[in-house]
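Re: How this chain folds, sequence and tokenised backbone to follow
How to read it: Take the token row as a discrete description of the fold.
Start of record: The labelled sequence and token lines come straight after this line.
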Amino acid sequence: MALKVGQQAPEFTVTAADGRALSLAEFRGKKNVVLYFYPADFTAVCTKETCGFRDSYEDLASKDTEVIGVSIDDDASHRKFAEKYNVPFALVSDPDKALSQKFGATGGLIGLLGKSRRVTYVIDKQGVIKGVFQGELSASKHVDGARAVVATLT
């Protein structure tokens, strides 16, 4: 089950496909984080969602917000995906679904297929979850919802 608005986001430290080390602690007090889980690179809805965050990235970044995408795909797939679609933010491989489990992005039908569920979190600078968006088939719900929540954060 996904985490809820008002909860403290679980800490994490990961390495992005581009080699950057990322941790929620490094953003504390500095940046909000949009952390989105998606089933797979190069699939229709996931590509639409990632491109939506790409197209919104400049606006989000101007509001002290970093975007991180997470799926079970390996780093090579993420690098190809990022290159093909000019993704300016970090993509993280979660093959053992450890991060997905921490954030409740497992289970359901897509979980039976061994993939992470589509769940997006907006985490403020204090590490508190301010927005949660779920739904396997709606990319725009996640992107538009995250942008709306970020607009309310200081």
In short: Residues 44-61 form the longest helix (18 residues). Residues 120 and 133 are 5 Å apart (CA to CA). The first strand starts at residue 13 and ends at 15. Strands lie at 13-15, 21-23, 32-37, 65-71, 90-93, 119-123, 129-134.
